[in-house]
Amino acid sequence: MHSVKFGLCKGHGRICTHIILFISISFPARGQPSNSQEVRGEGYCSMYGICGQRSDGKVLSCPNRTHSVKPDKVLSSKIQSLCPTISGNVCCSPDQFDILRGQVQQVIPLLVGCPACLRNFLNLFCELVCSPNQSLFTNVTSVKKVNGNRMAVDAIDFYVTHYFGEQLFNSCKDVKFGSMNTRAMDFIGAGAKNYPEWFAYLGHQANSNEPGSPYAITFRSKSNDSSGMMPMNVTAYSCVDSSLGCSCGDCPSSSVCFDSLPPAPHVKQFCSIKIVSLKVKCLDLSLAIGYLFLISAFLLWGFVYRKERTDTLRTKPSINVNEESKLNSDEKQEILCISQISEAPPVVKAQQPVAQRYMSNFFRKYGSFVSKHPTLVLCLSLAVPLLLCLGLIHFEVETRPEKLWVGPGSKTAKEKQFFDSTLAPFSRIEQLILASILDSNGERAPSIVTDKNLKLLFELQKKVDGLRANYSGSMVSLTDICLKPLGRNCATQSVLQYFKMDPQNYDAYGGLDHVQYCFQHFSSAEKCLSEFQAPLDPSTALGGFSGSNYSEALAFVITYPVNNELDKKSTEYAKSVAWEKAFIRLMQDELVPMVQPQNLTLSFSSESSIEEELKRESTADVITILVSYLVMFAYISITLGDRCQLSSSFVSSKVLLGLSGVVLVMLSVLGSVGFYSIIGVKSTLIIMEVIPFLVLAVGVDNMCILVHAVKRQPLELVLEERISNALVEVGPSITLASLSEVMAFAVGSFIPMPACRVFSMFAALAVLLDFILQVTAFVSLIIFDFLRAEDDRVDCVPCIRLASSSSADEGIVKQDLGLLTRYMKDVHAPLLSLQGVKIVVVAVFFGFAFASIALCTRVQPGLEQKVVLPRDSYLQSYFDDIAKYLRVGPPLYFVLKDFNYSLESRNTNQICSISQCDPNSFLNEITKASLVPSSSYIAKPAASWLDDFLIWLSPEAFSCCREFLNGSYCPPDDQPPCCQPNDGLCTTGVECKDCTTCFLYSDLHDGRPSTVQFMEKLPWFLSALPSSNCAKGGKGAYTNSVNISGYESGIIQASAFRTYHTPLSKQSDYVNSMKAARDFSSKLSDSLKMEIFPYSVFYIFFEQYLDIWRTALINISIGLGAVFIVCLILTSSIWITAIILLVLTMIIIDMLGVMAILDIQLNAISVVNLVMSIGIAVEFCVHVMHAFLVNSGDRGSRTTVAVSTMGASVFSGITLTKLVGVIVLRFSKSEVFVVYFFQMYMALVLIGFLHGLVFLPVILSICGPPPRSICQPTHNRWTTQTS
Predict the structure, then answer these.
(1) Which residues contact 220 (CB under 8 A, 6 or more apart)?
(2) Mean of the pLDDT values across residues 952-981?
(3) Helix (H) or strand (E) segment spanning residue 898
(4) What is the pLDDT at residue 339?
(5) pLDDT tens digits for 1235-1245?
(6) Which residues touch 379 (CB under 8 Å, ≥6 apart)?
(7) C-alpha 675: how far from chain center
(8) Regarding predicted confidence, which is higher, 153 or 49?
(9) Neighbours of 850 (CB within 10 A)
């Protein structure tokens, strides 16, 4: 007879249950006489009886020709139950049928979800084994001698019609094998693509000790007319047959599925217009048209305005009252001042708003007070930050990635917490990738699958197995912490599993040939089973191959799943971390040196690697940061000092003042950290490394501006007056800039990502403290320094006094203008006043702004993992190899909350995907989504515990759900106590002979269990071991997929259905896959009225990118709004505030354009930088704007004065101070510093400088507000009082 044997394997989590099918043909008989005469016709058999067995124990049938036999009533009833197409005489005995029934029971659980497929499959073997007309479609083509002189069958032809073969394959090709997230055809047909391939696989003659048929079976669809053969053509059922209806997941072509076709791939459409042969986006074209229109309007306005102005100037000497009324206020002021010049120099009388008048009065009085009491002000101002520094005793640094990058109120964080607490935390993953490298010719790297490399892999594995980590005096090995699905062996994912992880099996199994064989038969060959009794999909253990060409793989991927714990303080968690650290040291110290001489590369990672590398990063750039500080300090000391002869440089230098300013900056940073430490906010590495640099850059600006302002005062004035005048001159603009920076930083605290939110909070307070110290302590220090210089005392050593270098004439010394000041006054300001230059500036700056708007749409969300790690981190090569070699995506779980399994509820049929389930059921929709992986990012159908449970308790799967007479669970016949292992074989005993199936068909309700039946049998299913006789046991595969806590109420609190994402290589892939999964779950939840959410291990880190653009735009808008309000309050001018807002907006837009050009991604760090750019950009604008506002004259002359007065301070005190500090960051070891701090800050400094000292003066000269001063005649000398 035909004996069909199916082997089993088990798994858990990523390790899933497989079925191994091999065909063994035998026809045992009892004493039937041989009939050598060939008889072919209806009612005759072609083979009958057993003639012997092969050396591996597989039985062989005799080539007997005999008449079919009439079965007794019991046998006839049995045959009818399994083979309803056979009636009357048969060609099989009771023992033969029992063997057939026992073997096909192993495939029934795989196919029972699609009755049409199961019926066709059973008919194929029923006809072959028991059909009374066997001789019409089977023909013995070869025999051989066995057991002496007896002849046995060695090969047969089996004639099957093409129609039946097609129908059989079509009905089975899409049937799912749930626990493996794949199709059943991968196991019963080795992934056949058509029925000839399937039949060729079934008929292959197996070698000794290999699964398969003991003799060859050639399936044929046509016969010669002379042979008398008639292909078997029993009724074949289509999966669309309503009487044997299959689910949409198992039969997508079913008529009930027509209304629920898989979603069409979503292609993001961009509006575009074709111009000649060039395809242009609508946005780009609109921006180009808008830009041309704006420039044309500007040129037209400039032409008209120039013509009117020329005419006006020509008529000024004879201007009358009527004409005067037509002039604007700026022209009136200009004419008034011009007319008065011939009489006397003008005196500026300020028309100050309330805020300006208040600040001017305050700074004048404060300047006088601090000049008289510098020591008191210095001591009181230092007391506050010093007291805050006491909070540093509570200082803590947060290094856990999930606490740094995920907000506590995050939806994904809540979903992860639910998943971990109700089901099980995802396993910890330790992984290494052994890859070949390019050959000497630079061509494609050779295949990693060689005999030499496999033996090397065994050596590496031996090192890992022998690794012991010391934890509190006890030694921890991999076997102590690894994941063991069935409690015996580690579920290591490695090609070495094809040898049961034992090097002694390498030669015994056939070495490289065995590996090549298992690549193609991993799901069907018992010898390819892993040590933990599950088939190993080669795509999970290999990398760098295309399609299914596993032999061409370029890398071995070895994965060690390790048990995870929710309690981070538990002993088991600590043991895992200790072993992981030892694992990394082993890789670095021993395994990498072993691999390199073999022309191979080894990359590796552990679960705790990222956290450990982030900790190491905290010290990686200490030298870089220190050098940056030293460079800025050196620059401050030089720029604050006076230009003088070498002999007087010891007195005129400002080294001590610069050093004191740096100390104040550090105090402000420490005070900020101390304050937040007091209230329990942990610091981060980015705070410790970046904030001191940022606050120093901001603080240096104020230092330079204050010192330069004091130097600009006439030396004939006493120091008190110089200090007061300097504070009145620059105090309002410093206040405006500092408050704008504080507000911009504070806005960043609304960003949900903890690391960036905390950074913004710390930075806002640090900048505020720095501003307070600048206008208090630093002003006091300026007074001390000027008193020291006036007393000819040496800088840094004020106790030493030098002899006065001045002559007896101690008259008033006139200060020379510096080179930079002369450039601003004599070159830069006059150049910007030229009409042609103005046109070019406006055109270029607006052009780049419009181009940046188009470019910013190309900025991608994300944050590459490699960027946040040190450049010399071992994880850099690991992430490269992951992207290069991995062919499997991350696991994806769809979690269902509050599943009502009661019979009265329709939830069961709304979820399942087997026969009689709803066409649009939860699992059917997942299966359909997997058909369009390009848009759904779902690679496979979901592993369904519900489907397997319903099949497991089905009466058709008669070997699965069984019970003893006392009502307790009875396992399958190939498991203890039903059988006892004997020399590696299972000998069936009598313990389970009375076991019966749990239910009859009549006990179920349309194939579904009642509420009580479901509740009673679910724990049995989850504890049932999968085996050859019943592959649907849930232990291991679904142990952690169902939470049965409190399920007696009829509600299952949580259950998960596992599938996989497609391979993800780019940040955009991760973001898009998460978005697609969420959208898919949301639609399912709405349609099914159930709560469903997707979960994958990487979601928690990528949630922020789903709406990062929205977050960025909101925070930028709030930042600009905050600056707008501050400017409006302090300037009381909507005109001037609007110009500032325009310039700041253009700076931010240009920053986004630069991000697109430099391929800088949009994430929380870049959003903080953009928000911070608003505050820093204010400094480039506000000082020039304030100087323009308080001076008198026409727009051109006021712009010239503003640039001449403040241009040098802005360039040297703001631009260069930031520039020298930023350049040092280019040499940082951490890529995040280079990308997000060096590149973005460098762009900010350059863009801010150009807008502040080029674009803004041009705009002010064109459309600046009128002056707030009027010229009055006076006979006194010229004086200037600046408000």
Answers:
(1) 157, 158, 159, 160, 231
(2) 85
(3) strand 891-900
(4) 40
(5) 888 899 899 99
(6) none
(7) 34
(8) 153
(9) 21
Residue-wise pLDDT for 929-957, tens only, equals 988 898 899 988 888 999 989 989 888 88
**Residues of the chain above pLDDT 70, percent:** 84
User: CA-based angle 420:425:426, to the nearest 5?
Assistant: 135
Report helix, strand or coil for 980.
strand
Q: Is the pTM of this model over 0.70?
A: yes
Q: What is the secondary structure of 772-841 as a DSSP string?
A: HHIIIIIHHHHHHHHHHHHTTEETTEEEEEPPP-S-S---PPPPPPPHHHHHIIIIIHHHHTSHHHHHHH
Cα–Cα distance for residue pair 651/668, rounded to 1 Å: 29
pLDDT in tens, 462-495: 999 999 999 988 999 999 999 988 777 899 999 9
How far CA 520 is from CA of 187, 218, 1091, in Å, comes to 11, 21, 40
Structure tokens at 509: 């199994």
Q: How far is the C-alpha of 27 from the C-alpha of 100, rounded, in Å?
A: 10
Contact predicate 478/468, CB 8 Å:
no
Q: What share of the chain is helix, strand, coil (3-state, %, to 5)?
A: 55, 15, 35
Structure tokens at 807: 């002559």
Closest CA to 1266 of 307, 346, 331: 331
Provide the pLDDT for residue 307: 65
Residues in CB range of 373: below 8 A, 6 or more apart: none
Q: CA nearest 1092: which of 463, 415, 269, 491?
A: 415
- Tell me how far apart the alpha carbons of residues 25 and 60 are, in angstroms, rounded to a whole number: 7
Token match 């002694």: residue?
A: 504
Burial class (CB in 10 A: 0-12, 13-18, 19+), 720: middle
Question: 1002: Cβ–Cβ under 8 A, 6 or more apart, which residues?
Answer: none
Residue 1198 near residue 1212, CB atoms below 8 Å: no
Mean pLDDT of 217-240: 83
How far apart are alpha carbons 972 and 970 in whole angstroms?
7
Please state the separation of Cα 224 from the chain's center in Å: 63
Bond before 977 cis per omega within 30 degrees: yes
Element (H, E) at 879: helix 874-885
pLDDT in tens, 340-398: 433 444 444 445 667 777 888 899 999 999 999 999 999 999 999 999 999 989 888 88
- Enter the tokens of residue 1131: 């300037």
* 8 A C-beta contact, residue 691 and residue 671: no
pLDDT at 775 exceeding the cut of 50: yes
Question: Cα separation of 651 and 798, whole Å?
Answer: 9
Which sign, positive or negative, has the C-alpha torsion 331, 335, 338, 343? negative
Name the phi and psi angles at 862, rounded to 5.
Answer: 135, 170
Instruction: Please tell me what DSSP assigns to residue 1104.
Output: G
Question: Is it the case that residue 1077 has pLDDT exceeding 70?
Answer: yes
Retrieve residue 75's tokens.
């046998």
Residue 251 in tokens: 């039969």
Q: CB neighbours (10 Å) of residue 835? A: 10
Structure token digits, residue 428:
């910890």
Residues 705/710/713/714 CA torsion (nearest 10 deg): -150
What letter represents residue 389's amino acid?
C
- Phi, psi for 611 (deg, rounded to 5): -60, -40
Indicate the length of the chain as a whole number: 1283
CA 51 vs. chain centroid, Å, equals: 63
- From the number of C-beta atoms within 10 Å of its C-beta (0-12, 13-18, 19+), residue 370 rates as buried
Mean of the per-residue pLDDT values of the chain? 81
In terms of Cβ atoms closer than 10 Å to its own Cβ (0-12, 13-18, 19+), residue 51 is buried
**Closest C-alpha to 1093, from 908, 926, 896, 890:** 896
Question: By CB neighbour count within 10 A (0-12 exposed, 13-18 middle, 19+ buried), where does 481 fall?
Answer: buried
Cβ neighbours of 118 (radius 10 Å): 25
